Amino acid sequence: MRRLIKAEPALLLEAGTYRHDIMRRERVVEAEIRAAIREQGHADIEAIAAVVLETDGSFSVIPHRGTTHSALSDVHPVPSLKREAAPQEK
Question: pTM for the whole thing?
């Protein structure tokens, strides 16, 4: 009997931290993630909330913006993206 496998997006980087366990499983190296971040015009990993390996093999780079991270709701494991509040301008 055939088993159907449903691909899911994979969280490779979360709040500046590489998810090496997932990277090994997906066969992705740090250099590929850094290249994806640069391709989106970002110079700092710390400015990135998440990098996701999509089911089609592409990378999605999510910068720190907003507060709900609703585009990450179907990514496994579910990221726990918490960012410190920005200082209040005077």
Answer: 0.70
